[in-house]
Amino acid sequence: MTRSFGSRLQKLWCKLTHSAPMWPYGPHKEVGGTVTVASMATSVEMLMRELTRFARYLAPGVLVVCVMSLGTPCAAQDVDAPTPPDAGKGRGSAFAPSAWVVTDVPVQKQIDLKLYGFYIGELNTPVAQVDVPIRTTKFLTVTPSYMYYSVPASGLNKLPPQAGSFTDSYKEHQFRIDGTVPFAIRKLEISARNMYVRRFRRSSAGDTNRYRGRMAIAYPLAIHHRIWKPFASYETFFEQKVGWNRDRFWTGVTLPLKNGVLFQPSYMWESSKGSRDVHYLLFGLIVRTRFVHR
After folding, report:
1. C-alpha pair distances (Å), 206 with each of 159, 176, 209, 240, 241
2. Which residues, 6 or more positions from 166, have their beta carbon under 8 angstroms from its beta carbon?
3. Residue-wise over 70-99: b if at least 16 C-beta within 10 A, else e?
4. Is residue 53 within 8 Å of 125, Cβ to Cβ?
5. What is the CB-side half-sphere exposure of residue 73 using CA atoms within 13 A?
6. Domains of the chain by range and CATH?
7. What are the two backbone dihedrals, phi and then psi, of residue 157, each rounded to the nearest 5 degrees?
8. Residue 261's closest CA among 117, 102, 81, 107?
9. Which of 29, 97, 110, 160 is positioned for an S-S bond with 164, CB 3.0–4.6 A?
10. Cα 242 → chain centroid
């Protein structure tokens, strides 16, 4: 399977860069050519779609490994961007600079309260989210959560591949519950998360159920006496009425600013059926308060 995927990926890359075909896992000669910014953007998206197909094939096996493995727990990246409604086909991808902040308040030794605030600039969309992570065992954290977001008509018109003509805003409430299994292999932190989402939408759209499966990795690096933590994750979505319809690749780094305050710049690519691909440039601030035993 890996060899076949590698061969397909090489042929795709040859087409995108106008290079000569290469033998599997062997050298190749490049042919010069002019590449525009638009063509490069299209090439990246095509490459990401190939990786998505590979990740979907790989995901079930990795989730089983995560459940069966034993190791020390690790912290998973858990910020979440909202998922706007699907719309139809045409325009290219959208770019959405976004900012978010989360306050992490320990309630008890095994229970936290996380309060999130997001703002997606290109779509003019505010988001509020509340998580309650409960560390039930050493290798399992269960998190009930609630999310609300509202996309104005101007933001909705930017999502469809064809220019939209929305006049009303879109609002959605979500109740979610997930189980996360974290473990580590030496310093490499790995986590697998399975989430159930109940989406409460206006009557014309109807309420629906969603499944989300995510795999994430992170690796701490000591730089100038501080711990920087690069991370990456892949997530896939299954919608009750349409099946597998959305994928996300996310990567970034968590940087310490001072005690209890972290800064997290990151990039997220999201592809969904019926909507334009969205490139998120995210800037996050994490504020952690200390647990005081009484």
Report:
1. 20, 17, 10, 12, 11
2. 153, 156, 157
3. ebebbebbbbbbbbbbebeeeeebbebebe
4. no
5. 11
6. 2-68 (no CATH), 94-288 (2.40.160)
7. -65, -15
8. 102
9. 160
10. 20
**Cβ atoms of residues 95 and 70 within 8 Å:** no
pLDDT tens sequence across 211-247 = 999 999 999 999 988 999 999 999 999 998 889 999 9
Structure tokens at 73: 């727990």
List Cα–Cα distances, 241 to 148, 244, 258, in angstroms.
21, 10, 46
The string of pLDDT tens digits covering residues 28-53 is 334 344 444 344 445 545 555 555 55
Q: 3-state SS of the chain? A: CHHHHHHHHHHHHHHHHCCCCCCCCCCCCCCCCCCCHHHHHHHHHHHHHHHHHHHHHHHHHHHHHHHHCCCCCCCCCCCCCCCCCCCCCCCCCEEEEEEEEEEEEEEECCEEEEEEEEEECCCCEEEEEEECCEEEECCEEEEEEEEEEEECHHHHCCCCCCCCCCCCCEEEEEEEEEEEEEEEECCEEEEEEEEEEEEEECCCCCCEEEEEEEEEEECCEEECCEEEEEEEEEEEEEECCCEEEEEEEEEEEEEEEECCEEEEEEEEEEEECCCCCEEEEEEEEEEECCCCCC
Helix axes 2-17, 37-68, angle to 10 degrees: 170
Q: Judge if pTM exceeds 0.85.
A: no
Give CA angle at 73 (266, 147), nearest 5°.
50
Distance CA(33)–CA(277), nearest Å, equals 27
Rounded Cα distance, 66 and 269, in Å: 24
